[in-house]
Design a protein that fits this description.
Layout: H1 2-32, E1 39-44, E2 48-54, H2 60-71, E3 82-84, E4 88-91, H3 104-107, E5 137-140, H4 153-157, E6 164-167, E7 179-186, H5 188-195, E8 199-201, E9 213-216, E10 222-228, H6 245-252
Antiparallel strand pairs: 1-2, 1-10, 2-7, 3-4, 4-6, 5-6, 5-7, 8-9
């Protein structure tokens, strides 16, 4: 009987040691686990493949927004509508003219068929995002209403939606004022090939002196953009109501619409 009791005691001790080991390993694994950042694969017709790493720890709302749109096929068929040599290349407008963004229905099934914006994640807007605007930096495009009134900074900062750009050259003047959320890891040569396409003045800008020469004569077309998330669900961004510039403008002059 003494031997039986001793054996039971040894078995119990082993069980406790195993349990402690399993629990300890679980805590260790959790403490040392590092999630892989999402990886973007962008195919550009007749140009090649661009791969980019996203940084959800720096710009979580922007990354969630981009992943949701990309993996639902929103960007498929869009074009690089704005190309400025030694600066950046820009796409993400469904209409292809740079004047439209996405709708909530593009983010999720059953979403409202109305436009939205997201919070700008950069220092000037109260977000500690220290990614610098260097060659290959991926960033969110936004409007700049401060050219009409300096009081419209907040409306400008929170006006991003679906359009984004990739830097072709470092530009420190953007640091802290636009949302950088990723970096090109492969295909920088493709970015520079797009940068060198022939450009002209947009049709509706041709009568304006000093208009930007940035509209591609034959706009490079995005075949597809997909994001590998490695099993992590980044959710959906918090959507905001877009600033209605037209209504604001009329109010300044007391005009009823």
């Amino acid at each position: 009987m003494k031997n039986v009791g001793k054996i039971i005691w040894i078995i119990a001790l082993i069980a406790v040691i195993v349990l402690i080991g399993v629990v300890g390993f679980g805590y260790y694994k959790k403490a040392t686990f590092k999630a892989e950042n999402p990886v973007v694969t962008m195919e550009v017709e007749n140009f090649g493949t661009i791969k980019m790493e996203l940084y959800p720890d720096k710009a979580p709302e922007t990354v969630a927004n981009f992943i949701a749109l990309a993996n639902r096929g929103f960007y498929d068929g869009t074009a690089f509508h704005r190309v400025v040599k030694d600066f950046m290349i820009q796409t993400g407008s469904k209409s292809g003219d740079g004047k439209t963004g996405a709708k909530i229905s593009d983010l999720k099934d059953g979403g409202a068929d109305k436009e939205y914006t997201i919070k700008g994640e950069f220092l000037a807007n109260g977000v500690k995002n220290t990614i610098k605007f260097e060659e290959g930096t991926l960033a969110m495009a936004r409007a700049d209403y401060t050219q009409y009134s300096s009081s419209l900074a907040e409306e400008s900062y929170n006006s991003g939606c679906s359009q984004f750009f990739i830097m072709t050259k470092a530009n420190a003047s953007l640091n802290g004022y636009y949302t950088p959320f990723g970096k090109v890891t492969e295909g920088l040569d493709v970015v520079h090939k797009i940068e060198n396409v022939e450009v002209t003045v947009a049709e509706d800008q041709k009568d304006i002196e000093g208009a930007e020469v940035s509209t591609p004569v034959n706009a490079p077309k995005v075949t597809s953009i997909r994001v590998e998330t490695y099993g992590i669900d980044y959710g959906l961004p918090e959507t905001l109501t877009p600033f209605d510039y037209t209504s604001w403008f009329y109010q300044q002059y007391g005009i009823n619409q």
